[in-house]
Write a structure and sequence with these properties.
mainly alpha; Serine Threonine Protein Phosphatase 5, Tetratricopeptide repeat; 1% strand; 73% helix; 337 residues
């Protein structure tokens, strides 16, 4: 056999082997991608964000914990500032209320210890209602309120305010201390706070424990039943998207995202296959690299979207429960300014 014939046969064999090599490799690519997809798991635990916007009419229903000003007090300079501050506070004009309460405190005589505690508490409450938790803690630390006990008229509400401030500022040790004080002085409120925390954090096992403590079906059972019937499985969303890009998004009802994911992955996969088949290895590797980003990003994204979906449906129902049954700490307060 001459050299030309041998070279031709060798060339034909190499051309025939290329599709076979690609077919063989493709048998391993899909299982390998599925294996790597397991590294992109999204936690199934929800992290809801449930906040309460304080309304002016809520405090309009409450009375003050402190005795009204007597005629002699009303004639003093500090009392005039105090009265103005109270009006600002009742209208939830909290910035001006704090400034005016501070002026009243400056003008107040040193012998008026109980009124000083009252004003210090009002300043603390303004910071808390305004969401300025760090300033509320700072105001508390600089005040005489750390020395009060159950004889202080607003002691119950003071513990609630501190509990929330320490919770928001992630001070677990101080929050635990307030838990102990609340358990000792107001056990019913302490129990409601535990339930409130479980609801706001989406702690489903703890919520189920509370639900089991009720003798009859309760609003907690309704919440759990609603959530379980509406939630989407995060692992299922990721698995579907790993098997067919876009299927995970379609599972949670995001049709546009599903179509986009399917189209982009399809285009990149087709392009990579064509590059490899025509011997453009470098271009095929680059395109496959881009595709792997879309593919794994889609798996992770489908899981994240399922998690977000679950959080939104939970927040909607839990927010209703927390408002309806006064389980936000601010709704447990007994007194206004």
């Amino acid at each position: 056999m001459n050299k030309e014939a041998t070279a031709k046969i060798s060339q034909n064999n190499s051309q025939n082997r290329l599709p076979l090599s690609f077919a063989t490799a493709s048998r391993w690519i899909f299982p390998f991608f599925l294996l790597l997809a397991g590294c992109y798991r999204v936690p199934d635990k929800i992290e809801p964000r449930i906040n309460y916007q304080i309304q002016e009419q809520h405090f309009a229903k409450l009375s003050s914990a402190f005795p009204p000003l007597n005629p002699e007090e009303k004639n003093t300079d500090w009392a005039k500032e105090y009265i103005i501050a109270r009006h600002f506070a009742d209208e939830l004009d909290l910035y001006r209320a704090v400034s005016t309460f501070k002026r009243a405190q400056i003008l107040l005589g040193t012998e008026e210890k109980e009124r000083r505690l009252e004003i210090q508490y009002d300043i603390l409450l303004c910071y808390y209602l305004g969401g300025r938790y760090d300033e509320a803690i700072e105001a508390f630390d600089k005040s005489d309120l750390a020395c009060v006990d159950k004889t202080f008229p607003a002691y119950h509400d003071l513990l609630l305010v501190l509990y929330e401030c320490y919770r928001e500022m992630d001070c677990p040790e101080k929050q635990h201390r307030i838990d102990e004080l609340m358990e000792k002085s107001y056990p019913d409120t302490a129990e409601k706070l535990k339930l409130s925390r479980a609801l706001r954090e989406g702690n489903l096992p703890e919520i189920r424990t509370f639900a089991e403590g009720f003798q009859h079906s309760s609003y907690l059972d309704d919440l759990l039943t609603y959530y379980e019937s509406q939630r989407k499985s995060v692992p299922t969303a990721q698995l579907l998207n790993a098997m067919l890009p876009g299927a995970g998004y379609l599972y949670i009802g995001q049709r546009k995202s599903a179509f986009t994911a399917f189209l982009l992955n399809g285009l990149f996969i087709t392009a990579a296959v064509q590059f490899f088949r025509h011997g453009h290895t470098a271009a095929g590797i680059i395109t496959a690299g881009f595709e792997s980003g879309w593919y794994f990003g889609g798996i992770y994204g489908a899981g994240e979207e399922a998690k977000f979906y679950n959080e939104r449906i939970y927040e909607k129902k839990a927010s209703y429960v927390l408002n309806q049954y006064n389980l936000f700490p601010v709704l447990m307060m007994k007194y206004e300014f």
